[in-house]
Amino acid sequence: MAWTFKSALAALLIAGLAATAFGADDPIKLRQETMKAIGGAVGSLVKMVKGETPFDAASAKAALATVATKAQGIDIASYFPAGSDKGETKAKATIWSDPDGFKAALAKLQTAAEQQEAAPLASIDDVKKALGALGGACKSCHDTYRENKS
Amino acid sequence: MTLVRKAALTVVGLAVVALGAAAAFYLAFVPQPYSADEVAARGEPDVNNGAYLFAMAGCASCHAEKGAKAGDRLKLGGGQSLVTPFGTFRVPNISPDAATGIGRWRLVDIVNAVARGQAPDGSPYYPAFPYASYSRLKLADAVDLAAYLKTLPAVSNQVGAHTLAFPFNLRAALFGWKLLYFNRFSAPSEIAALAQSPSDVIARGRYIVEGPGHCGECHTPRGPLGGPDLARWLAGAAALEGTGRVPDITPEPHALGPWSPDDIATYLETGFTPDGDVVGGAMSEVVANLSQLTEADRRAVAAYLKAIPAIQPAPKPTKP
Predict the structure, then answer these.
(1) Is the whole-model pTM more than 0.90?
(2) B313 close contact with A: CB closer than 8 A
């Protein structure tokens, strides 16, 4: 009885550790969490532009900072290693067949995010401008490198 | 008269009767081409309205060069390839070039191509050209659109023929397709009833979605012969091009249920979803076109999409 309990506990522990390790190294999960964070920040700006939340320079700045940090953090080697097009992912094969194009598209986002983080933010019009610039960068990448799945 | 001759005559007779019946059905149930007089009755076409319809109908997305921006979206030299399960369609040149485009066509020829799926020589078009939806264009709008196309720059570009698999390569079979499905890219009756609704906004939205906007062409699944599955109106489908899925856009909880009409209108204008995602792929082209519409028209589309029945998306196909 004690033996069964111990081995069950050990098995559970090992399974838990394996899951954690897998979670940290799983590029698909990494990508999805990053995209979710960027989406959350962008979504808060969209709400502001639509008038669902009042204009607030500080939180808009914080959202733009999140986008910039998350975008800078995307490192192709660890986020999009070869073979990580398999599984529950919307990443398109074009990412690996056209690495230069993908690299350029990512650089476009990183530049846009950095510029928008540094740009003056005095009114809702500035938020609109920032969203336009970011949206363009997001879109041009999604057009070519993301699969539509639902 | 021998027995053999008698039998042969009977067979021929039956064939003639069957053909005649098919022709009668065709004439009765398939929308027939407009006459030059009907088109002329429109009077002086309003090319500004034509330009607006051009954006709504998304002509540039297929007929301009892939990824064309700004002024290049008005150069409709065709040439894009649409790779589908039926084969590869080559998008024709619809610029006013006399030799390689439609420069020699009369206004009524363009109207019948767009709204009746019929070439000037009477042959039917493949429904890759979404004329089943465009057939719902009001005649005045169709004439204005045709007149606008004539004002665009001529592009000299000879486009090759489609390469389609049997039996889709038989153009005559398209008469059958039109008989079965033309006039059917419209919502089922409970949705049709919306047009009777007191809300003009929903009726306007219905016109845009089911007519020029031709949303059902991608968002409604098709059967093996390319006819729409009306029970799953706008409930999402396998993409006709590539391997992706086109999403369910009914008010289903996993689809547009949680979106407010404002969310939908904003998405159609800017490409931003409420959760901060950004449009990509083929829908990106649609947003580029619909962002040119009036706010009121985008809201009308949103009102219609919130009013139609919610349908669960089909289960994802299991991986082989």
Answers:
(1) no
(2) yes
